[in-house]
Amino acid sequence: MSKRLTIHLFVALVLIGFYAASNNALLQQQNTAGQTGRSNSGIWNLPPVALLAVAGEFKGLMADYLTMEAGAQLGTELARKPEGGFRVVKKQYDWPSIHRIFVASQTLDPSFAQTYIVAQGWLPWEPANMVPETQEIVKIAAKNRPWDWQPYHSMGFNAYYFQNRHGEAGKLFLEAAKIPNAPPFLPILGARLAQKGGETETAIVIMKSMLVDKNPEEPGYTDMVDRLHALEGVLVIEQAANSYEKSTGRKPSSLAELTASGTLAAMPPNPYNLDYCMDAAGVIYFDNPDCQSSPPDKSNQQQR
Questions:
Q1: In the chain, which residues have pLDDT < 70?
Q2: Cα(204)–Cα(232) distance, rounded to whole angstroms?
Q3: What does the alpha-carbon distance between residue 175 and residue 303 come to, in Å, rounded to a whole number?
């Protein structure tokens, strides 16, 4: 028997063993609890050291199997009606168990893309609501897939959409924008959210570092330069507002107070040909001249 055939037979036996163990645990769980959901027992509950030892040189194959197992536990289930046809069965998901499957898969192969993609598609949403757990899975993917901009983009989306952390989301989008082949909108969006979350100086530093390696002929270069200059203008105003508060003991009620008091000699130029604006919370905007009367629309911010 050739060495290649021996390896193939071993792989087949391992996968059959994994399937048999999971299926047996599933039957036991259904018989004892009468649940329609899948089992919460399986090889994914093994400690990472034991899991790696069992997998041996077939870590990638086992990671594939576990991700397929997670997919098998998710999705819609159909049941045949006595009178004919089918009906949708509302499944009861064991989210902690499903999360452990993703973790086990990533333990075996931390660079496997499908693990974080499927986890992102399910775990942070209702009814699972496992946003921190999802962030940890995607963070590991980002570390082990330095060529892939999407993990950072996913983390940025989760921080913005689920956690309302605009500054953190902006920094994550900017990290994604550093990776080759990332969409050109990411640095613009990242800088906007970082500034909105109080990370103006951080956004400026990252934007400058990104522009150093960019060709001025590349698509989006001019937009990045404009956004950088707008952020620099915002930073000048923010620093003047802080200085005004220190000297007077109160925040300025308008930007006009900064120039009238001499704290700011003149408003910095805005590349978007709009007036800077400060809302009631003291946040400076470079693209919303009516921010005092109507807060900027969130959907518009996402597109910027």
A1: 1-45, 48-49, 76, 292-304
A2: 7
A3: 18
So what's the pLDDT on residue 151?
A: 96
Query: For residue 225, what are the contacts with CB-CB under 8 A and spacing of at least 6?
Result: 211, 271
Which pLDDT belongs to residue 266?
Answer: 93
87 forms bridges with which residues in the sheet? 79
Give the residue among 116, 121, 165 at the shortest CA–CA distance from 143: 116
Cα–Cα distance measured from residue 222 to residue 57, given in angstroms and rounded to the nearest whole number: 49
Helices (H), the chain: 3-33, 48-55, 59-73, 95-108, 113-122, 131-144, 150-161, 166-177, 185-196, 200-212, 221-248, 255-260, 298-303
Closest CA to 285 of 230, 241, 244: 230
The CA-atom distances, in angstroms, between 124 and each of 38, 47, 92, 168 are: 20, 24, 17, 17
Q: Are the C-beta atoms of residues 104 and 128 closer than 8 Å to each other?
A: no
**How many CB atoms lie under 10 A from the CB of residue 146?**
10
Q: Residue 236 and residue 253: Cα distance in Å, rounded?
A: 17
pTM here is 0.67
Q: Which amino acid is at 97?
A: S
What is the rounded CA–CA span in Å between residue 243 and residue 263? 7
State the Cα–Cα distance between residues 283 and 246, nearest whole angstrom: 17
> What are the pLDDT digits (tens) for 183-198?
888 888 888 888 888 8
List, for residues 107-136, the tens digit of each pLDDT value: 999 999 999 999 999 999 988 999 999 999
Which of 114, 132, 136 lies closest to 66, judged by CA? 114
Report in angstroms the alpha-carbon separations of 264 from 141, 237, 240. Answer: 46, 8, 6
Q: What residues contact 137, with CB distance under 8 A and at least 6 apart? A: 102, 103, 106, 115, 116, 119, 120, 123
